[in-house]
């Protein structure tokens, strides 16, 4: 112990002057945290229950049998892709469910009764910016109830059996469909009570998108009786299903989710999804918005590489995932079907939840109101504890309180700049990788993110503190105290962040709250034990107290990466995906590294240690820009394209044709637009689709949905000489009659449309005409949205002609000039014959590491 003389107070003060640890202990320090990650985080993310086999059924009569679900999925996927309008989806699969429900009914306990209904429905609603219209789509609906039960409040369980073009749909969403069948079997075979009937909705048109759920909740006879929902979907294939939406405004649902054996849930996932940052949607939104049904939305999120591809097969779906999901859904179904809240759900509407699991071991949840109180209390306690710590520093060091506060202010400024520098370095790497056309280098090899983004963040967070501590090594305030001030300044930054996020109702502020809470626990321990006077004991206490938060935050960070990385392969080419990863890593580094990085300052050659991370960043950049950083692999992590081999015809007002050409429409799904450029150019001369958009309505192209229009800047049109062989007749649009409305300046156009089961209808007005009304969904008209308008139309069993009307008004010209422009896109998305006739030659031009979702189509436009 040294004795220093304090000239102001004329007292001798004892404090410890620690010697720095040798630099070669630093690898052991970092290795400690890496071992924790491998032993806890990595194992728990992949931890799954042991799947039960058919041979286990006798000893587990109340349990979900994973092998049964797997066997059922094998039979379902043998049908092949189940696209709306195809025989496979509308006939074969419907019969499959009739047969499977009959098997369940044959095994059922006599106390239960079944009612099966195959719904056919037509309707329309707004989906984002387009009218989503359907005709004759189907749902297979099964109600399971106790005989004599007159309760009219039902539990709804939903998943969809249709799939996208070319995909067998094992993960999305066949896995959830067969899980429902097995849950139905286990409940029906038991002798346990069922206070409320359960409606199992096997949804036949989710991929179109979300049409069948809209049909059920707005038209089915049981829809108004459904008081709570379990929605099951998939954005991947296997792994653990995550609960990512709850309620809304019904926190009691989490009370029952707490009973599941394998919890995996997070408020952050809910807020990210509802903010539109995920390129997907689920039926949950339809049930919520059109039926007011609260519920739980659960989905697979791992291995999103095979999502919506032909590689979404049974052989890549782990049997253990069936057990994980089946155990949870079975427990939820039993609990919610007997929940008294279903009898009066409005009485239990109490606001939003904050919910999160810890490594899948247990679930924590509380209301949003409670979270505000907790956040405020933790913030206030944190500031008080820091104030006490600063006071004790002044007492123990002999420095005046104002002197310590001055140092604290300087260090707080350095910390703010350091956090900004950390973000800046990560973003700089992201911009550089994109500038040299090497974005997505981590798409297959996730470990590259450590060097590309975590290392520069550590450099940014530690460089300025290291320089400051070196320049102030003769400061009377000891190294231990100065390092503590850096930790306190980081805590103050996080408290400010808590206050901001809480004030704007971001429930995920609980992350920051937990980070601050554990830091305050460490500080209180150090203050009580007086270890804050002894630098290394202080550091040990900090390390011990931060094991849990480090484990939790790296766990969530890994889950987020495993979810978002495959999604970047289908998020379009308009934005740099490396920026997303850089920001994500910076945000999580604030939480899992913010209180650990300052401990680097206790090692000798701190600057050298920091420079090692900088050298590591440069090394990883070199790796990423070489062939080692090539982002794709065939089958397991392919690059995605959508392709239409199309014939387009554009007519003039006088009936002549201004455009009549065939071509290949290529829609790249990710940022690496040029990686297969040479191969694509072998098809023909490429043109950006946006080149046509100034002159033609919706670019004069067979856009499949509104997302295709948003992607026009990086989509390609390649004219070719050969005309595609269309499986059936081209769409036929017939003007049946025109009728005057309220005088000569208003007119109604009556049309009839026939064509394939997937069509798009584009509507625009010409020569100062005004769109007054139409027979499609009225939202665009009511809200005075300017044309052109996009209507997506599909049908199931009912292939009758679509009859529609459009009312227009002209005030500055007559109806002798063109009034309407209508374009019709025809899409033959499930006709295998069409694939082999001409289309296959173009698909063969793409590299082996790509997956191309392709079909033939037409587009034709007219003036009326």
UniProtKB/TrEMBL annotation:
Keywords, alphabetical: Endoplasmic reticulum, Glycoprotein, Hydrolase, Membrane, Metal-binding, Metalloprotease, Protease, Transmembrane, Transmembrane helix, Zinc
UniProt KW Endoplasmic reticulum keyword: yes
GO BP: proteolysis
Transmembrane segments: 21-40, 359-392, 404-432, 447-469, 481-504, 510-528, 535-561, 581-603, 610-632
Cofactor (UniProt): Zn(2+)
Stretches assigned to the Endoplasmic reticulum metallopeptidase 1-like C-terminal domain: 637-862
Subcellular location: Endoplasmic reticulum membrane
InterPro entries documented for this protein: ERMP1-like_C, ERMP1_1-A_TM, Fxna-like_M28_dom, M28_fam, Peptidase_M28
Protein name, entry field: FXNA-like protease
Source organism per UniProt: Drosophila virilis (Fruit fly)
